[in-house]
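Contributing new records

If you add data, match the layout below exactly. Sequence lines come first and carry their own label; structure lines follow with theirs. Keep one chain per record. Anything else will be rejected by the validation script.
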Amino acid sequence: MMSQLPTWLTWSRIVMIPLLVLVFYGLSMPTAGITAAVIFALAGATDWLDGYLARRWEVTSRFGAFLDPVADKLIVAAALVLVVSHNPGVGLALAAIVIIGREIAISALREWMAEIGASAKVAVSWIGKVKTTAQMLAIFLLLWAEPVAGLPTFLIGEWLLYLAAALTLVSMIQYMLAAAREQ
């Protein structure tokens, strides 16, 4: 049973998506965004924990390796849709489209690269790690939206999302150039 815990943690991120949406729209109290941000942070914690436990207990699986990035992409896309639907504007919409579009493109690219036996050419880079960190923090702050100790969390989140979108484009170009060399 314990060997399945990392996979169940991954599944929990997918299950959190409807909860995130229901809390974000369903709670008619001022803390709805804060509660949604906490759910998103909890999902981020399960992302770290499932990978850590799978490696530590040596219970990695091909299915888990497939499901983990799918769960990540689904909850990020859902959270971005929530943020943009609640704060319509060109900047946030473009950043969200860039991030979601890149995830779709890179997923397809990784599948194609695996098919031709060159999957190592599209391994995660340090820019991808910085992008992911900025993106996750940005989404958390955008969902939270309420100032904390006078800090404009929404504005900070917005700028972090723009940074994440820029890094998203840079990393996508790197991946595409690496893939183009494999043709």
